Each structure stands twice: as structure tokens, then as C-alpha cells.
Amino acid sequence: MMSTEARTPMVRLAKRSDMSPRMIWCIRFGSILIALLLGCIPILLTGSNPIAAYEVIVAGSLSRPIYIRQTIRIAIPLLGCALAIAPCFKMRFWNIGAEGQITMGAVFASYFALFWVNRIPHVPLLIVMGIASAIAGGIWALIPAFFKAKWNTNETLFTLMMNYIAIGIVAWLQGGPWEGRKGSQLIPMFNDAARLPEVFRVNCGWIIVLVLAVLMHIYMNKTKQGYEIAVIGDSVNTARYAGMNVGWIMMRTMFISGAISGLVGFIIVSGANYTLYKGVANGVGFTSITVAWLSQLNSFAMIAISMVLAILEKGANTLQTRMQIPASIADIITGILLFCMLSSEFFINYRLIFRRKDEKGKEADA
Amino acid sequence: MKKISFVLIVLALISGFVFASGSSETAAPADSNTVRVGLLCIGDENDQGYTYNFIRGRDEATEMLKADGINVEWVTKYNIGEDATCRDANIEAAEEGCQIIINNSYGFEPFMLEVVDDYPEIEFISCTNCASAFDGRDNTHNAFANIYEGRYIAGVVAGLKLQQMIDEGTITPEQAIIGYVGAYSFAEVISGFTSYFLGARSVCPSVTMKVSFVGSWSDATAESDAALALADQGCVMISQHSDNTTPATAAQSRGVFHTGYNNDMTGIAPNASLISTRIDWGIYFYEAIKAYVNGEEIPQDWCKGMGDGAVVMTQLNEAIAAPGTAEKIAEVEQAIADGTIQVFDTSTFTVNGEELTHAFALDTDGDFTADSEEAVYDGAFHESVFQSAPYFTVQIDGIEWLNAAY
Amino acid sequence: MTTLITLIVAAVTFGTVLMYGTLGEILTEKSGNLNLGVEGIMYMGGAFGLAGAFYYEKAAGGAASGPVAIIIAILAAFAAGMAASAIYSFITITLRANQNVTGLALSIFGTGIGQFVGEFMRVSEKGYVALSNDLKDAFSAAIFPDFLINIPVIGRIFFSHTVFFYLAVLLAVLMYLFLRKTRYGLYLSAVGESPATSDAAGINVAKYKYLATTIGGGISAIGGMVYIMTTAGCVWNHEGLSGVGWLAVALVIFCIWRPLNAIWGSVLFGAMMIMYLRVSIPFIPTEIYKILPYIVTVIVLILTSMKNSRDKQPPASLGNNYFREER
């Protein structure tokens, strides 16, 4: 570990911003390679051949049209939710409540899917479900934003708690008012009219999130609101001096973020699961945070990274089937991948200046 | 930046297609005497209960089929959720060349049904559920066994023990309370604890029962907590309809007795567990797979009981069971087999103080309330006659539901 | 009355698990590190704790002794937790990555490792993994003699618990003394409040952060082990631990970062999580009980921020990394 001796540090750090884009991407790719190498360790422990295992992961996620469709289905919510989180994180508002915002969006979409399905025709019903989910997710996100703006309540912890409250509400609905067969704790499957149509045999959610990716890119880079978010992210005080209403911008941004997460909830229930249960968000809200962050909040990089994680998840499932390696290997490799990519940013942002003269000390430490 | 991201995506996709070539190894076996069967499980063997019981059935059926010259290649997937991951697991098993896919948990069925139409040539089996009767498909099947018979006998064993404690003065007749850890307040569970209770009351008239629902088929901690809570509320006998062994452990730690489900739990709780009952899935797997290989139909809805060996009792824990229990078990088994004992004999229980005269068995229109086939006739409620999945949902007198919200 | 006593006893069992998770996270957060990986750390603690005891018993055979198994399980869990949070520390302190994201990554990673180890043991043992009954009893045995437990009312409330509970209480008291009464504890709090000032005063910020975070992670991991060994029947359970780590994070807030509050706070949270099995109030769905801890935590969070009294706030630098160059 460096710089533990305060007096004469072995290595000094200097911030840098001069690295060429090519070098940056080399480092990032290098970190992915290192992660994949490290991922071999648990595979070797099970007595399997890591190269064969990686081949199965890729084959299991991309080798057949249906596998690709399943992989994309996993990637859709990851991407959508990463897009939702991007503006908050840009603003340095640590919204880790996407899980709950997805869930609340899913609840409101499900309400219309279950109880209005015979009263509204197909397309309008889907639109109503989408709008309802966006509003629900937005309001769920607005609550912590309000307290943050008003009393500076810690938003990380607040949004985290809101997740479990939302999940508890679904658990209650599942066993209570929305239960299908008595005692089963299962909400009935949605009627066809409440399901998202498929395009290329994947629910059209992929079109929605791709459009959102473009819109988010424009919003963040070309609009006044996007600029305000960036200013607050740099320095709240600068924003205040510039006359911005920081609290209002926070609430507005969180509402947008929550609304997109809610929409993702709608896509999940109406396009993939066709019913509501308490695990509806299934960790997407957390994983997508890492997707957003690793993409440097860049909408287009998120597409790639969410695909990579989806490939891992789907592929690990096949790995369990074919090689009896526990499917939890996906979580391990994802974790390693995140660690490596998080670490790689350090080498992009900082220059290491080694102390020249005493090589002895260096050897002693090593 | 933008360009590079696009390059990334393209790379990712291309690399996928490059690897795609190496995937043809998973086609269904060519040999006509070899069959590939998928078994999708809600837990794994570590539960030492529900899923473990399926794995035993799997291994047993494999041996039996091998004797008939049939090889089974199993694709077993563990720890599947009762959610959309179940649909993905079904697709996975289908794509990996399984010819029969067995879903082992009740909640899997709706997600399984999302897949079945894409694979008309594959036979899908949903254990313990009931949709195949009315879904109009040829490739969906259900299966269950008359576990209520086994539970009735387990109840008799418990009742004898309670009566022994009453006779010896350890407890008063009013203190003969059974605590039952149920998963959900759901037909299969209600049918199970009612038959258990009736078995116990047939030999210990003063017995009453408290049921606590944990809201999960498999949640080791909640099951343990529920069992402890029941013991703390005065229950001196614990039984369970949940997947794990923790209720047995909990009973032992509180010094009360226990009867189990799915697996012999006397090894885990030698001072508490008297006996267990379990379904022998090997019988069904053998029949179904054999039928498939012979080109016959897998039964649309399969249900067998003790007489056929589909429901069995585990070894009685003679060290702590009441004297004469083994003889009584043999007697009741015989009586159930020849029909002299009807488990749900309507003269043995009341509902709100009155005898049960009417209850429907089947739900034909999908609104989740039974609306067809009278189940009460000839002085008894006839369980698992019209479909394999239990349909006894009546709340009888003497059983207290502690938390009915599930 | 008996209902209340049994409720408290059961709440303590569950609360003990939370207490370790919470105490570890309090120590971590005191240094300004918000480690959201507690869930993963506790999973790892559970899996490695079980593995330690299991393989010890396998090696020792019939000669396996309860106390040794308990010590091995504690050490194995502690080591696993330390290793996990060492990764976190290295990435956030030395490599300066975002704490929230790193913590979430650790959650994913730790959950994966825990499940992997659990499943790996099952497969490699060709069946299932559980301890013998004697060792199980050792883990859940009360440590005080019967005559104390049999004292009416207070006997069961105070003396009927496992060794882990008393260890946790001891740990809470020690942590309180450390933070309030020792120089190092005060330095640690200073690091969490204002790393820049501490650095200027000559405190080695990185060292304090590293030590607090890794030791804190180790303590949290013991909670995972206690969970598997006491409430989950000494058997690995795939979904078993889900949510306990997050509950511990909530409890840290509820305790407003004070170790002594963790003692009663964890018992209270433990009670809320199991109350639905023991006290049923008509018209209140049982699921609502289970979200009570989170609602209460939110209220505490709001109230403390509204009052804005200095001693009830999160450590001021919580969640932010310290860059000396930017000071």
C-alpha cells in the first residue's frame, strides 16, 4: 500500500488529464482482461477448465437466437436503470434507491394491468401503464430528494431504506389484496392485452431504452438542465453563486431519474415477467449503478457494459447446466470485473511519481 | 468516445457469433433408449427436505430405469426462484436437449406455461400444481401423491405420543397442543395439516392445533422462528409443511416433539423427531419416463397413494415414540388401503360447529374459486380424486390459524 | 408476560446477528467509509464460518470440541470479512474509487462468493453440509448455569442466550470505550469527521481508515456466521442471509453511530422481524411488520437531520474519499 508513511512517501500522486483516449481505453480493456484472468481462479477451484468455461458462458448467452434474446432481455432493465441513475450521480446525488423505484413503477403498472385490462384497449392500456409507472417511480424518488433539499437528509441511506419499504409493499400485495389462488401468494399472470408487444421476438422495451439512451445523451450534454446538473456536480456552492435553485434542481432530477426507473419497472412486469412479485427488481437497481458509474455516465458506453453483464449472467446459467459450476460464479466474476474497472480509473486519473533516489527502501517494502 | 462504445458493442456481438460454432454438442441424445430429463428445483440438497426428496426420487428412478435398459441423462438445476428465472430455466433445459422437463415447485407452473408452446415436442411436468387439466395443451402434465394419507399416520403417531404424555401426567389434556409450521394458507397445506390433525385426534381426543404460516416454501430461519414461537406458545408437538429441517432442530432445542415431512429427521433431532412422511417421487419419475421412452402418453394428471408406495413413512423413532405405535401404524395403513378409514370422514370434524356437507373440488374457469365437482359424498370429503393437487380448503374447528394473512 | 419474555428471548437470537453486522459497520463508518458491502461480507462470513467448523469437525472426527469449533468459526468468518473489506479499502482508500459503487460491487461479489462456497461444499461433499448434533448444540447452547436461567422473568431475559450474544455486548461496550475514552478512538472519530484536519494534525488518515474498515468488516462477517450457526440450523442455505446485511446498515443509522445503542437497537429490530409469528394484531398484515425497521430508520434519519444537532449526525465525511492533493 502506498503513501502510508506520511513523511517521505514512496510514491507521489499527481492528478492528470492528459492521457490519450487510446491509452484510456487500453487501460480499461486491460482491466477487463485482468478481471477475466482472476475469474479463472474460482473456476479452477471447481476442477473445470477456465477457457472451456468462458466458451460456455459466451456460447450460452450468444450462440443461438433464443439465447441472444434472453441476454438482451436481461440487459434491457440494466441499461434503462443505468440511464436513470446517470443524472443523479452526475449531480453527486447518490441515489441507490433505483431498486425501490423500479418496484413502485412495477406496482402501478400492475395495478392497471390487473384491474383495467378489460376496460381499456391494448395500446392505450400500455400507455396508461407506462405513465402510471413513471409517475409512481418519480414520486418514490422525490421523497428522499425533498428531504435532502429541505434538511440535507443523507440521501444514500434514505434511498436505500425506501427500497425495502417498496419491496415490503409488494410482498403485502402478493399475499393480500392482489393474490390469485387463495393462499398461493402469487399474483395472476397478466392478460395478453397488458403485455408489451415483441419486436424481433424480444419485448419492445429494447427500443424504449435505446431511445432513452439517445434522449439522455442529449439531455445531459445539450440542454440547460443537463448543464445545471453538471455544475451542481462540480460544486454546489458554485451553483448557488450562479443563482441556481439547487434544491429544486435536485428534486427535478430525482423525479426524472425515478420516473425512468419506474418505466423500467413497467418494462419488466409487462415485457418480461408478466406478473408482479417482490423480487421484481431482482438487484437490477444495484447492478445498474455500477453499470452507470463504469460507463463514466456515458449513455452509449452503458449499452456495452450492460450487455457484458447480461452475457455473464445468462452464460453462467448455462455454465451451471453444462459444467455443474454454481451459477453464483456470475456474481463473482461481475464483482471482480467491477473491482478491476473501478481500480483502473485510478491509473487513468492519476500519475504515479516514484521517488527517485532510494531504491533500497523500495526493495525493503516489496 | 461515442465511436469507441459502438465498436465495443459490435465487438461483443461478433465475438459471440464466433464462439457460436462450438455449441452443437447439446442436441438430444440419438440413442432411443437414452432420454434426457430436466429437473428444476426450488432449493438444493442442503435443505434435507423438499428438494432433497426429489433428488432421492431422481436417483431411485435412474436405477429402476437402468434395470429396464433405459438410460437417463439428468440436467438438474438448483435454487430456481418462483419468478421469471423459472421461465429462463425452462428455456435453458429445453435448449440443452431435455425431452422431459420436471418443475418441482408449485409456483413454477405459471412461468413454465409461458414456455411450453414454444417447445411442443417436449413434455413439461409441473409437480404439485394443477393447470394441465384445463389448459388445452398436450405437452403439460401434473403430478402429486396422496401425502395426506401419510400425514394422517404421522398425526396418529403424534396423537399416541400426546396421549401417552397425558396418561403419564406430564401434561393435562388441555395442554395437548400441536404447533404446525405451514408455508402458505393454501390448499395443499390446509389439506396436509387438517389430515394430520384428524389423525392425531383419532387417538387423542383432547388435542388442538395452532398453525403458523411463514409465507415461504423454503426459509430456514423463518421456519425455525415459527417453530420456536409455537413451542413458546405452549405447543408440545411440532409438525411442518415447509422445506427445511430447522423446525425439527427448533423442537429439539425447546424440548418438545416433532414429526417431519420429506425426509427422516430423526438424525437431526434424535430427541424430538418421531417419524416423517414423504412422497416417493421415484415411483412417478419411473412411470413417466418409461411411458415416454415406450412412446406412450405421460399421464396428464398422476396421483397415487400409500397403496402404490408413492407415499411412505420413514423409520419410526422407537426410542421416544409411545409404546405400541408401530402396530398402530400398520393397522391404520391397512385401514386406509382397504378404505375402512376415510381420512376426511365428515363425521370426525365440524366446520363452525356443523358437519361439512358440500365443497367443490375444481376451479374450471380460472377465477381461483372452486366451482365444479362435488367432493363431499358417501360421508367423506374425497381429496385428490378429481385432480392430483389437493383441494381441501375448509377451516375446521379445533385448528387455530395464528396469522392467516398468508 | 410469558409471551413478552419469549418474544424478547427470540428477538435477542435474531438481534445478535444484527448486532455484529451493525457494530462492524459503525466502526467502518466512524472512519468516514460507507461500506455498503455488508450484505456480501455477511454472506462470506456465513459461508466461511460454516466451512471452518465443518472442515474442522471432518478433520477432528469424534474428538471435535464445541468451543474449538466456535473459535474456528469466528476466526474463519472474521478472516473472510477482513479479506472482503480489505478489497474495499484498497479500492476506495488507495485507489480512490467511489465508495457507494465499490460497496455495491462488494455486495454482489460477496453474495456470489458465499453462495459459491456453500454450493461448492455441497457438491464436493456429494450430498449436504451440516454439523453433527453435538456441535450444533454447542453453537446454540446457553452459557450460564440453569439456576440463573430459572430465576423468574429476568433469568430467561438475561441469562438464556448463546455465547455470541454476550460476546457482542462485550464488543459493543469495548467499542464504546475505545471510541470515547482512548486517544486512538478519538483520532478515528476525527478522521471520520474531517480527514483534512486530522491529516494536518499528523494523524495517518489512510492507516486509520484501513484498520477501521477491515476490522469492522471482520466483525460484520461474524454476524453472518452467527446467523447460519444459530438461526439457520448450521446448514448452508442459498437464500438464507438475504437482506440481513442491509438491515444492519439501517440499524447503524437507527443507532446514530453509537455502539451502546446497537445493543438495544438490534434486539428491537430483531423483535420487529419475528413479531409477525408471535404477536398478531388484527387488520395489520404481517408483511407490514417486516418493513417497520426500515420505516423507523427513515424517520430517525429525517428527525436527526431536521434537528441538526451535531452529535447525532453521520460522520461528516461519510461516503467521501479523502484526497490529500485536493485539500
Give structural attributes:
heterotrimer, B: 406 residues, Rossmann fold, seven-stranded mixed β-sheet, six-stranded parallel β-sheet, C: 327 residues, globular
In total, the number of domains of chain A comes to 1
What is CATH's topology name of chain A? ABC transporter involved in vitamin B12 uptake, BtuC
Along the chain, the helix and strand elements of chain C come as: HHHHHHHHHHHHHH
Radius of gyration of chain A: 23 Å
**Roughly what is the average pLDDT of chain A, rounded to an integer?**
88
Task: Please state how the strands of the largest beta sheet of chain A are arranged side by side.
Answer: 1-4
The largest sheet of chain A, given as strand count, sense and whether it forms a barrel, is:
2 strands, antiparallel
Determine the most extensive contact between two protein chains. Answer: A-C, 60 and 60 residues
- State the low-pLDDT regions of chain C, or none: none
Sheet with the most strands of chain C? none
Round the Cα radius of gyration of chain C to an integer and report it: 20 Å
Number of helices of chain C: 14
Compute the number of structural domains of chain C. Answer: 1
Task: Give the terminus-to-terminus CA distance of chain A.
Answer: 10 Å
Q: What portion of residues of chain C belong to β-strands?
A: under 5%
- DSSP summary, beta strand count of chain C: 0
How many angstroms separate the termini of chain C? Answer: 58 Å
Structural class estimated from helices and strands of chain C: mainly alpha
What is the oligomeric state here?
A: heterotrimer
CATH architecture of chain A: Orthogonal Bundle
Q: Quickly name the level 1 CATH class of chain A.
A: Mainly Alpha
